[in-house]
Fold this protein.
Amino acid sequence: MVRDAMSTEVVSVRPEEPVLTAVERLLGVGRTCLPVVDDEGRLVGILSEADLLRLALPRYADFLEDAAFLPPTPELLDLARSGRLTQVAVSAIMHGGPLYTVEEDTPLVEAALLMLRHGIRCLPVLRAGKLVGMLDRQDLVRALVRPALQEPLSEP
Amino acid sequence: MTLAQFAACAIFLAAYLAIVSERLDKTKVALAGGSLMLLLRLVEQRTALHGSSHVAGVDWNTIFLLIGMMIIVGVTKHTGLLEWIAIRTAKAVRGHPLGIIIGLSAVTAVASAFLDNVTVVLIMTPMMILLCENLKMDPVPALVAIVLASNIGGTATLIGDPPNMMIGSAAQLSFTDFLRYDTPAAALVLGAFVVMLWVGLRPRLRVSPEARAVIMALDEREAIRDPVLLRKCLLVLSLALLGLVFHSHLGLEPATIALAAASLLLLLTMPTRAAGPALPADFRWYQEIEWPTIFFFIGLFIMVSALVELGVIGMVGRALVTFAGDNFPALAFMVLWFTGLAVAVVNNVALVAPMNALILQIRHDMLSAGQAAIPAAQFQALWWALSLGACLGANYTPVATAANVVVTDIAHRSGYPIPFVRFLKYSMPITTVSLLVATVYLWLVFFR
């Protein structure tokens, strides 16, 4: 079950915080996404690496089929100097729509299938609507190999 | 008016209102309206689907012409051809901003004359934003120009715009008829449009030489994703065009040419081995067919069949002819301006379906009444008035056709919202001038 594989030490970010804060936390914990949580501990969105990459690209790039012909201008990926990291709030770029979530007693098979089928990297784990943990692909892989190992792996 | 006539009118008008309100998807509305008319037996299914001596029924010629072209365009759009042309054009005018706006508008117009407008603007819109961002200029006027050019270009040929496909099929006008009458009109309108762009935008566009240098550094060769596929697409497109030019001489319908060309392209592209990672798998190409559009047409055709079968169209036609009296030119200009203004609010396909039936009815009435005063050659003016009105009028508002909606949507999501009123500021004068040019053109060609 999800309970046995999820990480409970959840690092989150609030929607009104600047993107820079989120990036620092993301890199700090070495994960691929952060849950976005409001003051009452409710999950309001997910911020993933993809959202950050999209912020770095010009917005029209989403509509191009290919970008091989783009000019090699330095500002194209110059997110740091553009000031957007401190000006843009997490809520502006997070994935806030209907989110895929699991409960602690969700079978791991179901969680794995969700991830594969929808290309999700991490799933928030909820208990009565409140965020209690995160389950990412690495957690699942660890749960997968644990029985094959002599000694239990240490949690990160 | 009989109860059946009243019911058919009520269903049709309710469907129209629902389509105009945009509260419901237009395909669902058209299918529901068509089904309801069949359920109530306002028209028999056999008549609606296969036609009868006096009812056109579902126009399968238009449907399969659309499907064939959708497949060809759906494959071609992945080759990077339009991106290549756009970059070449921007470099040919040496990154000059007004040159880019006019050049890309011209490219959009020519491409839209042969390919689906939505597909063309889907590619040209991000390309235009890319160029404008690198030139550090406001992309909004340039993007409105793309919309307008696309609809003007679509006017030019039988396959340019769905209304033209419907008109060509209903009136039995060939691809070359469209080249003879609609292409010069579209070219004149495009000329007037370019002059208006020149006058309106020239004083406002200043960019630095550095910005222009960025444009000159774009590498169009990188845009071509699959040269082999591109050669196949160009071959099939050329064959399709050749076939369309001669279709009436060969006794073949345009839909036959389009379907044959589409099947050839599907056969030629069968092995996906050579395809790059960006290309869809083989079966995906059937998904390039826009089924909602196809079913929208089918629903509309069924509803219009009921209106024709019950004589509603006949009543409106007789009223119109009486109203116009002996003044046939007035009737033609009424069709042009009524259609041109109406498509600002009603989807042009939804308008052309009943208008086609109406004009067929008027032709039938005039022939049976022995009004030989109007020669067949001059009667054609009504069809061209309908075509020019339906295609050019689609430029009035940002919601008039799918291409307009696509451009404003991409612009919005790229950070350049085009407010309704700002679109109108550019579109109203240009569209009104377009319809005036069409009026003068029709008068010169048919009534002078």
Observations:
- Residues 420-447 of chain B form the longest helix (28 residues).
